[in-house]
Amino acid sequence: MATVLKSGDRDKHQAAAQNASAIAGFNLSDLADEGRTRLEQCRLQVQEMLAVTVAQVSFSLLGHTIKAILLLSILMVLTEIN
């Protein structure tokens, strides 16, 4: 919002300056709030991605462990037969 002031009206100059900085402060505050909101959303998304990755790695390790146990069991049975 633009305000045109005539020279010599000091009170109006001060009021206009206060209004302008109040508007600028409000816009910066909104921008800061939006930034904080987006950062929180990103933080939550990264946490979710990390949890999924940990679950996938754990499942993969479990699969390899089960395979190793089965192979050892087969080897034990084969050595007992011979």
Please give a quick description of this structure.
The chain is an all-alpha fold.
Descriptive overview:
The structure is a single chain. With 82 residues, this protein is an all-alpha fold. It is built from 1 helix and no strands. 0% of the residues are buried.
Furnish the topology, listing elements before pairings.
Elements: H1 10-81
> How large is the radius of gyration?
34 Å
Q: Structural class from helices and strands?
A: mainly alpha
Q: How many H/I helical runs?
A: 1
Termini Cα gap: 94 Å
**Strand-residue fraction?**
under 5%
Largest sheet: none
Helicity level, as a percent range?
over 70%
Low-pLDDT stretches are: none
Shape: rod-shaped
Mean pLDDT: 81
The counted number of beta strands is 0
Keywords:
single chain; 82 residues; mainly alpha
